[in-house]
Amino acid sequence: MRFGVLGPVTAWDEAGGVIDVKGPRHRAVLARLIVARRRVVPVTRLAADLWEGEPPPGAVGALRTFVAALRRALEPDRPPHAAPTLLVTQGPGYALRAAPDAVDAWRFEQAVAAAAALPPRQALERLEEALGWWRGPAYAEFAGQDWVRAERSRLAELRLHAIERRAEARVALGLAGEAVPDLDAHVAEHPWREDGWRLLALALYRTGRQGDALAVLRRARELLAEHLGVDPGPRLRRLESDILHHAPHLDPVSGTADSVWAQAAAAYDRSVPAGARARLESTVTLMRDLAVTGGAGLEAARRHRVAAIAAAEELGEAELTARVIGSYDVPAIWTRSDDPGQAAQIVAAAERALAALPPDAPDAVRARLLATIALESRGTHAARAGAAARQAEEIARRLDDPALLAFALNGVFMQSFSRAGLAGHRDRIGAELVALSARHGLASFEVLGHLIRLQARCALADFTEADRHAAAAERLAERHERPLVSVFTGWYRALRLDATGRTPSDEPNEAGAADQAAGAATALEDVEAAYRSAAARLDGAGMPGLERGLLPLALLCARVRRGLPPETGEVDWGPYEPWVRPLVLLAGGRRDKAASALARVPDPPRDLLMEAMWCLVARAAVAVDDREVMRRARTRLTPAAGELAGAGSGLLTLGPVSEHLAGTA
To answer: What whole-number distance in Å separates Cα of residue 226 and Cα of residue 220?
Structure first.
C-alpha cells in the first residue's frame, strides 16, 4: 500500500492500481492523518479541521463513517471483525500506521536528506528520481485548509531546495549547460531565492558565458532592491567579484572521476566535429565498456553497436567499417546468442568488410573481423565460423599481439563444440587465456579464462579446481567492476550444491564418487532453492540468451538425476523445448506423442548444453525403446563418457554421461 500527497491525494495498491477512497471528505481524513505522520489525531481535532471551526451536529458520527469506508478501501482483504492494522483506533482518535517509505512525501524528504551526503553523480541520480515523484502541488485539493498549510509550505520549500541541489550537482559534474534552462525557469518563478541566482550565474560562467553570468547577477540585485529593499547576500556579491576577476576556484573541479568524465566528454563533443570518423570509433570503445556493466548497459551496447556498423558502412570505407566491427572485443562466455538475428547481421557485415578490404589492409584488422565472425556464429553449425576462428588465431600468434590473441582465443572457445567431450580442450584454452591476460593486464579476458576453466573443471568433476577459478574470477570482478561475473559464479554455487551436496565455502573433502552420491542425496528443495536464487541474479542482467528457459531446465535436470519425473504444468522451456518435450510428454502419460516427438527431435546446438540435451534425448529414447534415437545419442555422447553431463556449462548437471550411455547399450 502506497500513498501520494505530492499532487492530488491518492492511494495505490500493491499492483500499482489506484484505490477508490470515495469522496472529498474521505480523502480529507486520509490527508489529515498523513500530515500527522503516524501520530494519533483526536476525533475532536479531526472534526474541527475538516469542518474548519465548529463542527456541525453529527460530525463525529460522520467521521466514523468516513473512517469505516476508508478501512474497507485500504484493507479489502481484512477478515470480518479483525482489528485494522493500517488505519487504527488509538485512545481518543485515529492514526495511519503507514510504513516510513509508503508515503511519497516522506520518501522525498528521506531522499533529499540522503543526497546531501552523496557524491555529485549519485546525488544527481537520487534527486532526479525524487523530483519525479511530484505530480503537482502537495495536497493539491486542500490548498486552502489551515490544517495543511504549514506542511504544504514545508514540502514546497524542500522541493525548491532539491531543485537547487540538483542544479548544483550538475554544475559540479561539468554539466553546467544542462543546468542553465532549469535554473532560468526556477529564478523566473521564484525570484527571491538567492541560491537560484547564484547557481544560474555560476552555470553560465562555466559554459563560457561570462557576460550573461554578470547580467544575471545584475538582474538579481535590481529585483531584490526594488521589491524587497535589500542588497544581495555575501555569496552573490562574492561570486560577482570572482567572475570579474576570473577566480581560479570557479573553474570546474577536476578531482573526481565523475567530473573528469563529464568535462572530457564535453571537451570531446566541442572539439571533434559532428560526422567525424573518429566519433564512430570512439563510440565503439564506449560501447565496449558499457557492455560489461550488464543490464541496461549491455542492452544499449548491443543496440548501438548495430547502428554504428550501419553508419560506418554508409560512409563506404571498408577499413573504417572493419575497425568499427572488430573493435568490439567484449569477452563472451555463454554459447547461445542473446539476439540471433542481430548476430547474423553482424556476421554478414563482417564478411562484407572482409571482402572489401584492400590487399594492404593491416592483418590485425582482418583478424579482428575473423574473430568477430567466430564469436557471433556461436551455437550455429556454420563451418565458416570454425575456419574463421583458426585463421584469427594464426594471424594473432604470427603478429605476437596479446590483445588480438585473447580476442581470437575467445572465438576459438566459441567454436570448440564440434563434438561432445571437449572439456579438456577448452580447459587448455582457458589456461592460456589466464596466463596471457595476467602477463599483459587484460583483466576482462583474464576473467573469461577463469570462467572457461570453471566450466571445464566442472565437466571433468574437478570441483576443487572449479572453486579456485570461481574465486579468482570474483576477485578480478570486484577489482575491475565486472558485475556480470557474479551471475555465473552464483549459478556455479547452485550446481556445486546439486552435484556434490556442498558449496565452495564448505569444508573440502575427498572428491569423486562420494561427492556425486552426496549430491544425489541432497534435499531437492535445497537444490531448487539454490537454483531459484541463482536465477534471480539474471533479472535485469541483459542476457536473454542465457535467461530464457534456464531455470526450468535446471530444475528438470535436478529431478531427473534423482529419478523423479519432470513437472508437467505450463512451463516456458525456451530454446530447450524440443529436447525436453519427449520426457515431459512421458511424465504426463502421453507415450505415443512422446515417441512421435522423439522421432523428429533435431541434433541440439553445438554449445555448452549439447551433452545435457543428448542425455535428455537418450533417457526418453530408452523409455519408449526407440533404438534408432538411442544409437544417435550413444554415437554423439560416447566421446564425453568421462564427463558430467551439462556441468560444462557451469550452471547445471545431469550427472555422469556414462550413466546415460549405459541405458542405451
So the answer is: 10
Distance CA 316, CA 236 (A): 55
- Here the cell at position 657 is 554421461
3-state DSSP of 182-201? HHHHHHHHCCCCHHHHHHHH
Per the structure, how many domains does the chain have? 3
- Distance in angstroms (rounded) separating the CA atoms of residues 76 and 441: 60
Q: Which of 291-295, 310-314, 461-465, 630-634 has the lowest mean pLDDT?
A: 291-295
> What SS3 state is found at 87?
strand
Q: Quick one: pLDDT at residue 509?
A: 47
Instruction: Kindly state the DSSP code that residue 136 receives in the 8-state scheme.
Output: S
How far, in Å, are 267, 469, 514, 516 from residue 509 at the CA level? Answer: 58, 18, 9, 12
* pLDDT of 386 higher than 80: yes
Domain CATH code at residue 77: 1.10.10.10
The residues that bridge with 645 in the sheet, in sequence order, are 655
Domain with 71 in it: 2-113
**Is residue 555 in a domain?**
yes
Which CA distances in Å does 98 have to 10, 34, 107, 138?
Answer: 14, 8, 12, 18
Q: Within its chain, how far is the Cα of 455 from the centroid?
A: 24
The set of residues, in sequence order, having a beta carbon less than 8 Å from that of 329 and lying 6+ positions away, is 288, 368, 371, 403, 406, 407, 410
**Integer Cα distance of 3 and 139 in angstroms:** 11
First to last CA, the chain: 61
How far apart, in whole angstroms, are the C-alpha atoms of residue 189 and residue 183? 10
Q: Is residue 460 part of a domain?
A: no
